[in-house]
Write a structure and sequence with these properties.
The protein has 13 helices and ten strands. It is α+β, with helices and mostly antiparallel strands. The chain has four domains: about 120 residues; about 60 residues, no CATH class; about 140 residues, no CATH class; about 80 residues, no CATH class. The strands form three sheets. The chain has a five-stranded antiparallel β-sheet, with no helix packed on it. The protein starts with a helix and ends with a helix.
Length: about 475
């Protein structure tokens, strides 16, 4: 016990030797106490507060390291306490020297452990969804909102945006530093541009979970929408059988839509604009070495030095985890599911007009939507006790707030989804009449290459009832 006391006293004397070591000691002690408290709180709260994690695992370890540096600097300044000129002399036969060595070995080990754990937790935290989605709140709110409502909501951001391996991790952190500076200075684009050019190839990210070699067969896709008549009770049913394709074991060939990213066919294209909405040239290189090339004569020439890109998942699935809805589709979905009361005449037209009007802020939009819908309910259903307008109003407001962010310059359909060809050119960026070979052969745009249309506005009435029943069941 006396030995421990002696060691402690020797260390304290050195730490109190000048104001620099005193300041460093305060930094170390305070940061270690708060790191411990923050870690325990993080374990209890399950990481619900993102700013707590930011402080506990990044700010406090930095303060701890700064404290250690100050202590070392202070000791060097007052080296006459432990150093005898001309060099460093440590004599273990001298109790004071022995005690100081023991003190600094123990404290250095503890500091190293805390810093190591803190560094790992900082790394882990910067890879977390709360860090990506909530730290830069105003900037990332749109993408985070869309992510939470998407099919990849349980997939951590880093798994898709970074993927495995150190090189891309380092690259992402360097990019993150630039983004952090732009957030602090306010010099960031509104809306945030989709990081098309800097995305890692999908074979390193998407294909860690999705395996193109086992895609096969066909898939029934159906959806309902409200027609020009505005009838909710008699919606238009559209249905197609998609030729998902992939590797067919029976024929031992790659077929269907996923033929584009098969190992047997390397599809490359040359963009005509930065957003990849216009394609200048397309070429296919087969496994046997043969190749074929098409060119769009009406697309502008790409800038000098533009390289061909190998087609992958992201070229069609360009909004896989951050998908924003079209106002008509989103509203029809809510009306047909009963989330917005459909018994009020003119409800769809009014809500559509309210959510697509131009507003400066989300709060201004919410007030306008609420007032418009309240007025309609007052005019058409003020005497009805079976209607609860607040639920419908809240649903309409949520639809707007989940897809439109005026403060960030995001309106309806700001981010175009290339999957298919309904809301954007999608497939027709390449498959169009202008894309031809030198001998004039067009790049086919036949509908049945990718799907068979089972039902649409014109064909639904002639469809076999059993098929129609199957479509309805698949939809619901």
């Amino acid at each position: 016990m006396n030995r421990l006391k002696s060691v402690f006293q020797s260390g304290i004397r050195v730490l109190m030797s000048n104001w620099i070591t005193v300041l460093g000691s305060v930094f170390v002690m305070v940061s270690m106490v708060f790191i411990l408290a923050g870690t325990l709180s993080e374990m209890i709260d399950q990481g619900k507060n993102p700013y707590q994690g930011l402080i506990t695992f990044t700010v406090l370890p930095a303060i701890l390291l700064a404290g250690i540096i100050l202590i070392v600097a202070g000791i060097i300044r007052s080296r006459r306490e432990v150093i005898e000129r001309p060099g460093l002399i440590i004599d273990f036969s001298i109790p004071r020297h022995r005690n100081l060595i023991i003190f600094f070995v123990v404290t250095s080990t503890l500091s190293f452990i805390v810093l190591s754990v803190g560094s790992f937790k900082a790394y882990e935290y910067t890879e977390s969804v709360p860090f990506c989605g909530t730290i830069c709140h105003s900037v990332m709110t749109p993408e985070y909102t869309a992510y939470q409502a998407g099919s990849h909501a349980r997939v951590p951001c880093a798994q898709c945006h970074i993927g495995p391996g150190a090189p891309w991790w380092v690259r992402s952190k360097l990019s993150g530093l630039r983004q952090l500076v732009s957030v602090f200075t306010g010099e960031y684009s509104r809306p945030i541009s989709t990081p098309i050019a800097n995305l890692r190839p999908a074979r390193d990210t998407c294909e860690q979970c999705h395996w193109p070699e086992v895609f096969h067969g066909k898939k029934l896709i159906s959806y309902e929408r409200i027609g020009a008549e505005g009838s909710v009770t008699d919606p238009i049913v559209s249905a197609v059988i998609l030729h998902i394709g992939g590797y067919n074991k029976r024929t031992q060939r790659n077929v269907g839509i996923h033929w584009h990213i098969s190992a047997d066919n390397r599809v490359e294209y040359l963009i005509a604009n930065d957003k990849r909405t216009k394609i200048k040239r397309v070429r296919v290189i087969r496994s046997d070495g043969t190749r074929k090339e098409w060119e769009n004569s009406k697309a502008p020439e790409p800038p000098a030095g533009t390289a061909y890109r190998v087609m992958d998942c992201i070229d069609c699935h360009n909004r896989p985890a951050h998908r924003f809805k079209d106002p008509g589709d989103g509203l029809d979905e809510l009306l047909l599911s009963g989330q917005i009361d459909t018994s009020i005449p003119g409800i769809r037209k009014l809500v559509y007009g309210a959510i697509t009007a131009d507003y400066k802020t989300q709060d201004e939009a919410e007030l306008a939507i609420r007032n418009a819908m309240h007025d309609l309910y007052e005019r058409e259903a003020s005497d009805r006790k079976d209607i609860y307008p607040e639920q419908s109003i809240a649903t309409a407001v949520k639809l707007y707030r989940s897809n439109v962010f005026p403060e960030m310059g995001i309106r309806w359909n700001t981010y175009v989804n290339h999957l298919g060809h309904i809301k954007s050119k999608g497939c027709f960026r390449c498959h169009n009449d202008n894309m031809t070979t030198k001998d004039g052969t067009e790049l086919s745009s036949d509908c049945d290459l990718c799907h068979d249309v089972l039902a649409d506005e014109e064909a639904a009435s002639t469809l076999d009832p059993k098929i129609m029943e199957m479509i309805t069941e698949s939809h619901h």
